[in-house]
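Kindly inspect this today.
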Amino acid sequence: MAPAAVSSGRASAPAVPKGATQALRWYGFTNGPAGFVVPQGLTVVYRIDQPNVVTAFFAASEGPQLAAWLAAQLPGMGYHVQGASADSVVFSGPAWSGAFTSDSKISALTLRRN
């Protein structure tokens, strides 16, 4: 079986009102949990898109705000937040689990099928 596609490049989302969300598919993903959303307006700088795992790399400047947003919003999407800090979140759900982390150079969200 050939490895799943890995794509790169910049995909910028248009600016939208604060609080609006968009499914990962809108950012170019074909895999990942149905109904999983992130805030619109993020900049995906690289993506890994495989049937069992997806990773979205975002601009570093978006990291702290995205970590806080995920920690607050994941329970409403059916995920249990196992741990969170100012720059990272670890969470689990019935079919997918994941983690988000960021530093001064990049931030990334990984979701993997359980």
